[in-house]
Amino acid sequence: MIEKKIISKRFDKIDPYSIADYIATGGYKPLIKAMTGERIDILSEVEKSRLRGRGGAGFPVAIKMMALAKEAASVKYIVCNADEGEPGNFKDRAIMEKDPHSILEGMIITAYATRATKGYIYIRCEYDKSIEIMRHAVDEARKNHFLGLKIDKIDFDFDIEIRLGAGSYVCGEEFALLESIEGKTGRTRVKPPFPTSVGLFGKPTEINNVETFANIPVIVDMGGDEFAKIGTKSSTGTKLLSLSGNVNNKGVYEIPFGIPIKTVIDELGGGVPDSRALKMVQLGGACGPIIPRYLLDMIIDFDRFDEFESKTGSGAIIVMDDRWDIFDILLRNVDFFKHESCGKCAPCREGHNQLARLLRKFTDRKATVKDLISIESLARVMHQTSLCGLGQTSPTSIISTLRYFREDYIDRLESLEV
Amino acid sequence: MMVNLKINNIDVTVPENTTILDAAKANNIAIPTLCYYPDLRINSDCRICSVEIVGKKGLSTSCSTLVTEGMQVKTHTPRVINARKTITELLLANHDADCTACAKNMNCELQKLANVLGIDENRFARVLEVRPIDDHNPSLIRNSNRCIKCGRCIDVCRNIQGVNVLEAMNRGHDILISPPFGKYLSDEFCTFCGQCSSVCPVGAIIEKDETATVWNALHDPQKHVIVQVAPAIRVSLGEELGQKPGTIVTGKLVAALKLLGFTKVFDTDFTADLTIIEEGSELIKRITTGGVLPMTTSCCPGWINFAETYYPEILDHISSCKSPQQMFGALAKTYYAQKENIDPASIFVVSIMPCTAKKYEAKRSEMGSTENNLDVDVVLTTREAGKMLRQMGVEFENLSEMEFDKPFGTTTGAAAIFGTTGGVMEAALRTVYEIVNKKPLAVLDFVEVRGMKGIKEASVDLGGKTVKVAVAHTLANAKIIAEQIKNHESPYAFIEVMCCPGGCIGGGGQPYGTISKTRTDRLASLYAVDVAMPLRKSHENPDINKLYSDFLGSPLAKLSHELLHTKYQPKRRH
Ligand SMILES: Cc1cc2nc3c(=O)[nH]c(=O)nc-3n(C[C@H](O)[C@H](O)[C@H](O)COP(=O)(O)O)c2cc1C
Ligand code: SF4
Ligand code: SF4
Ligand code: SF4
Ligand code: SF4
User: Fold this and answer.
1) pLDDT at residue A289 greater than cutoff 60
2) d(CA B26, CA B10)
3) d(C-alpha B446, C-alpha B469), whole Å
4) Residue A253 forms beta bridges with which residues?
5) Predicted structure pTM score
6) Residue A77 parent element (H or E)
7) Buried (b) or exposed (e) across B53-90, using 16+ Cβ within 10 A?
8) CB pairs below 8 Å between A and B: how many?
9) Do B125 and A377 touch (CB under 8 A)?
10) Could you tell me the distance, in angstroms and rounded to a whole number, from the CA of residue B148 to the centre of ligand 2?
11) C-alpha distances out from residue B22 to A143, B40, B504, Å
12) Angle at the Cα of B116 (from B115 to B117), degrees rounded to 5?
């Protein structure tokens, strides 16, 4: 069995509406251990674990935590990013709906370690069930003194508020998310300063993904060193995958880092339906690279994913069989990003419209060699110059297909004359 | 601390906290920019100033990235050049790039950028969705089809002026910089200060051009066309015509306007002196008779519009004096008409102002004998005046200097400094002090009220009492002053308020590219004009005294009141 259930160990085994179930299965023990019992050094355990963010970019969690802990401000925030708006991603939803307290516990431990005073969970507004369960969990945690004033009778106050997403994908980007919580339009800010120094309402803020927070109690429980033994050198622990597309068993799976993509598709996904041939896989979601069958031996690992210069670490795997035309996928992606671009920076605001027009020339078989050069240049410029991750990563599917499926482009040229 | 880095393989050393953009500039390389504007916030939205930093993925915007020790920057690699070109082509593909039919032709940052980058074709399809133009007010025209969404106008309006009329609506490709819900400026709380037009890099916000009306009037034999020139113009028109910022061009300016065909060229400084007499008398009256205090100045229409819209409860704190421009208009069509025996209806008054709000002011119905006979017929900005001189082909630098015409030509240094923040206050203090204390001032310069500080304070001794005064410029600072008045917490007796940064020298109609440095250059020149004047106190202007004895009677008397004073109306907020 290639699965390793650490984050998903309670999935479908407990009632998500029952804090008693959570406690009975060892929940909130790590929190109590961290705050009262052995008074372990949370920051150093997280550092030893080498945990990296699970929202996509894979940034080391300990660096953000330590930066926040160092800030002297009297008000500091912890924000949980549960906006999960990218097509092909649904693993955060699974955690919220199947083990909500693990997220809260991770946030409370992080707050305790960094002396943060208030937490927000920013949940995608379409996730009705997640919202309901998370709200219930926050209430229960408050009633049981895991949240609120003098948590578990020690001198530490921390509470969490649920906020609903503004319904646009870019609000998952950390600065746009903070603007949105502040009641403004979701558009990113110029960096630096980073959120850990100037974040929500101008105060130091740590923002992490749902799955990232769910890892924190696990690390406190087993110890950083032990955690770091799972996975690979660059990527420790496990990863929740959102497996979708042309596979027999779609769903959320948890594996240790280091498993090849192909194994996941075959063993967990049960292969491609109707014994069709697999043509390509898109990693990470709409903003990720599209890779051909011959690269599927690649292991799941942040450093390997980095080779595509995109932030593909959120764990989505979208499988496409031989009936798919790459241009259908590309156009769908580009139209999505064109609609979701916040419009702040020029390359992303203007670029998607032009990418879509150029792609349509290929689907209409009206493209010229010059168009091929233009689309390649435009995709790269958007990737290199856009202000936030949206515009930087949205051209990834084009850049990767130009590399791995170039013949598909050439096939669609009106003529080969330059 | 100094930081060592390499820019294009050349070792350079700059102070820490310098941006790459400034570091390159200090070493003689101008990295192209588009949304960047020296006095405004860094948006880094256009991404044009991108550079390569060795070892870093992607490109970095040089306007927002600080230098670090050992950094290696490449400002013009093929990758960088291609990125800049691509972004510029993208912008141009969504732009009404009809340069020869655009007010900003040859004065446009986008056009200049395309030229510097050597763009000779656009690989991208034209995608402009044409939107309606907003020309529903007397001052400004907004043409969204030329907007490149740089955000500068939002920043000045929101953060410098604190007015917040403009915003970025919609998202992505549909983004529209506009008043909320795409309304007209005139529907909103716009003060028409025109600071947005002054920073807009392209032709998307421009003043309403009225040069054609002036050309027509100049060539209409039925019209007696005269012109008045605001204090700040003498230190900015030269710059508009290519000279160094702050160049003083008083005499040439008179000569140039004569060449255009104006029958008489008068100086608004004259009615600035008159303002001091009327406003000073009003202040003394308010102080001595227990009138409403503090009193604020009223010569700036940006401030008046702001107060009428946002602070209707403080309108009786504003001096009832008309602005110098409007006092001039009123006198031109009465005193001057009588004196010269000209039918007032044939007199056509043109003003040259640093200001777009003055266009609005001149069109207010109370600014004339009837609504159809307004005292000032046309207001031209510094930029429009420059345009007319270029159209005429006037060789400005070769002109011999001339003097302003009488009876509105003899002026004082006090009036000249009306054009800068603190100037009206200083001019008023010179006069009020001497009238109340009945002794000459030992030192004429009130240095506490000079300079670029947002709110300046001073105390003066008036008749044995110490009176506190204040000077505010920009509407964000005006807001602080107005809040104090509204809450009955103002510690002052008299307050000068100017809407634009630096006062009129930084007005919304001044030459493009005005930044702090140009403002301080213009300001220094106005003080130089003041010092060089034989008379430096308004109450010593002999022609003002003659005006009272021959025509007006005395300050605040019936005729003065009728011609030189006005009322303010609360504006409805939508
Ligand atoms: C356009 C865009 C959308 C994003 N959406 C999400 C999201 O839905 N959930 C998430 O956790 N991170 C998202 N991110 C990444 C966040 O900006 C941020 O890196 C992340 O929340 C940090 O958490 P982590 O370090 O735990 O991964 C998005 C980034 C971009 C550029
Ligand atoms: S990259 Fe796109 S989404 Fe991000 S700031 Fe620029 S326009 Fe907005
Ligand atoms: S704004 Fe600039 S680029 Fe656009 S039409 Fe006018 S001059 Fe040309
Ligand atoms: S109107 Fe001008 S200043 Fe405002 S965003 Fe558009 S281009 Fe920039
Ligand atoms: S400060 Fe001068 S230029 Fe600006 S609005 Fe007032 S009068 Fe006009």
Assistant:
1) yes
2) 13
3) 12
4) A241
5) 0.94
6) strand A77-82
7) beeeeebbbbbbbebeeebebbbeeebbeebbbbbbbb
8) 105
9) no
10) 15
11) 56, 15, 29
12) 90
How far apart CA A102 and CA A28 sit, in angstroms, is 8
Say which residue the tokens 């303002």 belong to: B275
The helix (H) or strand (E) run that includes residue A363 is helix A346-363
Any idea which residues of B carry the catalytic annotation?
279, 282, 299, 319, 358, 361, 366, 504
Residues of A in contact with B61 (CB under 8 A): 385
Whose atoms come closest to the Cα of A211: which ligand? 1
Please check whether residue A233 touches B, CB under 8 A.
no
Contacts of A180 in chain B (CB under 8 A): none
* One-character DSSP codes across B112-123: HHHHHHT-----
Question: What is the DSSP track for A13-74?
Answer: TS-TT-HHHHHHTTTTHHHHHHHTSS---HHHHHHHHT-B-SSSS--BHHHHHHHHHH---S
Lowest mean pLDDT, pick from A60-64, A258-262, A309-313, B148-152: A309-313
Q: Is the pLDDT of residue A218 over 70?
A: yes
DSSP string, A248-279: SS-EEEEEETT-BHHHIIIIIT-S-GGGPPEE
CA dist., res. B6 & res. B53, Å (int): 10
CB-based contact B93 A374, cutoff 8 Å: no
Domains and CATH numbers, chain A: 19-228 (3.40.50.11540), 238-321 (3.10.20.600), 326-411 (1.20.1440.230)
Beta bridge partners of B496: B471
Exposed / middle / buried, residue A381 (Cβ in 10 Å: 0-12, 13-18, 19+): buried
Q: At residue A310, does pLDDT exceed 80?
A: no
Check if A387 contacts B (Cβ < 8 Å): yes
Judge whether residue A174 has pLDDT over 80. yes
Which residues does B448 contact at the CB level (< 8 Å), separation at least 6?
A: B456, B457, B458
Closest chain B residue to the Cα of A381, Cα to Cα: B83
Q: Whose CA is nearest to atom 4 of ligand 4?
A: B153
Ligand 1 atom having least distance to the Cα of A210: 11
SS3 A334: helix
Task: Reply yes or no on whether the pLDDT at B391 is more than 70.
Answer: yes
CA distance A381 to chain B (A): 5
**Does any CB of chain B come closer than 8 Å to the CB of residue A368?**
no
**Radius of gyration of chain B, Cα coordinates, nearest whole angstrom:** 25
* Protein residues whose CB sits closer than 6 Å to any atom of ligand 2: A 170, 188, 341-345, 348-349, 386-388, 390-391
Residue B130 CA to ligand 4 centre (angstroms):
16
Phi, psi dihedral angles at A255 (to 5 degrees)? -135, 155
Residue B142 CB neighbour total at 10 angstroms: 27
Beta strands per DSSP E along A158-216: 159-164, 205-209
Mean model confidence pLDDT for chain A: 95
**Domains of chain B, CATH where assigned:** 2-76 (3.10.20.740), 91-207 (3.30.70.20), 212-564 (3.40.50.1780)
Probe site for chain A from B67, B126, B173 (most A CB atoms < 10 A): B173
CA angle in degrees (0–180, nearest 5) for B171-B176-B182: 115
Selection from A34, A389, A65 nearest residue A204 by Cα: A65
CB contact under 8 A, B91 and A350: yes
Instruction: Report the amino acid identity of residue B329.
Output: G
Q: pLDDT, tens digit, for every residue of A95-141?
A: 999 999 999 999 999 999 999 999 999 999 999 999 999 999 999 99
Q: Residue B369, SS3?
A: strand
